Amino acid sequence: MNAPNVRTFSNTRELSVSLADLTVKLCEESIEIRDRFTIGISGGSLPKLLAADLKNREDIEWDKWHVFFCDERLVPLDHEDSNYLLCKKEFFDHVPIPEDQIYTIDSSLLPQLEQAVKKGAEATEEASLEIVEDYEQKLISVFATVNAVKFPVFDLLLLGVGPDGHTCSLFPDHPLLDLTIGWVAYIGDSPKPPPRRVTFTLPVINHAHNITFVATGEGKQDVLKEIIENPECRLPAALVQPTTGKLYWFLDDAAALNLTSSKVTTIS
Ligand SMILES: O=C(O)[C@H](O)[C@@H](O)[C@H](O)[C@H](O)COP(=O)(O)O
User: Fold this and answer.
1) Distances (CA, A) of 147 to 26, 74, 98, 143
2) Reaction(s) catalyzed by this protein (predicted)?
3) 103, 144, 240, 268: which has the fewest Cβ within 10 Å?
4) Does 203 have pLDDT greater than 80?
5) DSSP character for 258?
6) If DSSP codes are grouped into helix, strand and coil, which group holds residue 241?
7) Which of 84, 90, 161, 224 for mutating ligand 1's site (highest number of atoms within 8 Å of CB)?
8) How far apart are CA 268 and CA 265, in angstroms?
9) CATH number at residue 25
10) Closest atom of ligand 1 to CA, residue 214
């Protein structure tokens, strides 16, 4: 694995500008090589930090973008917990990415999942599988024809990290961390609400050409030191180790406070 590239910024405004610079650069390179830009976005603070500067950039070939969600809460797309809705408000509403190139969960399958949960484990497994398979089909529709590979290879995945070290909907010590096959997984017992979600699996994440973690605020100080500087760390975010791609960390000073300064590139 390549060593992570850790960048710290004195404020979130500077972080957003640099994140937009990197995204534009990767977008241009991907379009040059593959005539499209495939990106996976997470929830939390990320959509706002991504969009703050990027949405005002000119000369971006938005029609070449294909957007997926690294994880999604299993709620209707207009529900306040939806990662899609958050991304829509912060980002999609401000840029002309074609709607049919923003790949959401099939929310029409949610009522049957809710019914199945009441019926028990077997019914839940069946109903959740339908949601998972639908999202995998959407990935196949974009990736399988161009890359005949075992896993989709995203041009860029943008990830957040929780104070517990979770990323996407992969939580510490959860059995989903052991998955070595499958692209999308269902989690019905997320320790962070809402409990029912879908998430990319670790192999999908680790096959990406580029992965960028974004974390801000002092609540992340301890966990970031552990994830970035302890090679023995087994927290989910530490298991993000691209097989051949590049790994970036974009942090503000507060989040990076405990990191050893020699390992960090400071941008002020
Ligand atoms: O679905 C979720 O619950 C969020 O997407 C979550 O996984 C988030 O990405 C991290 O908790 C980091 O969030 P912040 O960037 O807001 O700290």
Assistant:
1) 18, 28, 22, 6
2) 6-phospho-D-glucono-1,5-lactone + H2O = 6-phospho-D-gluconate + H(+)
3) 268
4) yes
5) T
6) coil
7) 161
8) 10
9) 3.40.50.1360
10) 15
Write the ipTM: 0.95
Residue 255 has which token pair? 């989040």
SS3 170: strand
Peptide bond into 194 cis (omega under 30): yes
What mean pLDDT do residues 74-82 have? 98
* Residue 100: pLDDT over 90: yes
Could you tell me if the CB of 42 is within 6 A of ligand 1?
A: yes
Q: Is the dihedral of CA 58, 59, 64, 69 positive or negative?
A: negative
Q: Residue 157 is part of which domain span? A: 5-267
| pLDDT (tens digit per residue) in 217-260 | 999 999 999 999 999 999 999 999 999 999 999 999 999 999 98
**Whole-number average pLDDT of the chain:** 94
* Domain count along the chain: 1
Kind plus residue range of the DSSP H or E element containing 265: strand 265-267
Enumerate residues 6+ apart whose C-beta is below 8 A from 186: 128, 129, 131, 132, 196, 197, 198
Supply the pTM of this predicted model.
Answer: 0.96
pLDDT band of 1, cuts 50, 70, 90 = low
